[in-house]
Design goal:
There is one protein chain. The chain contains two helices and eleven strands, in the order βββββββαβαβββ. It is elongated. The strands form two sheets. The chain has a seven-stranded antiparallel β-sheet, with no helix packed on it. The chain is mainly beta. A hairpin with a 6-residue loop joins β1 and β2.
Amino acid sequence: MLGSASQYPIFGPEVHCPHCRQTIPALVLTDSYLCSRHGAFEANPKTEELVHVQSGRHWRRWQERWYRQHTHPDGIRFEIHEELDRLYTQGFRATRVIIAERYRQLMSPYLEHGAPWQSSGREKIPKLYGLPVTFSEPASVTPQWAVVNFDLEKEPGVPTQYRYLKMFD
């Protein structure tokens, strides 16, 4: 006889939908979860990802929160922009963006590097939405970066540059 735990996908009898965050049930004897608003999600036990069946988007979980795993720079840029907006409405301003090292190759061509005539002999710090960008440590050093996409350093106050409030440069 099978134990009750083996009747559910790897994340258990229910999870929060990565889109709307409502609790969604597992379908017994499958590797699927079903959200009444967003449809089916399949749990992949090998990669520990949740895959939205309709869109093919992949999600991974870190400390009970889902993070979308991006394959295109616009997805990350949009997500960062949303978070900057959220900070602004909470009375904070971002001072730096830290992007997961695994996205370095994907994001580097889309970062602002300054014009050649602005060079003062020192290395230019790449920017996104007018904010300095650094890349994280490798996931082998800090495991969260295998899942988390970015982090924003912040401080209280309104942005001194409103440049990042524009969606596209």
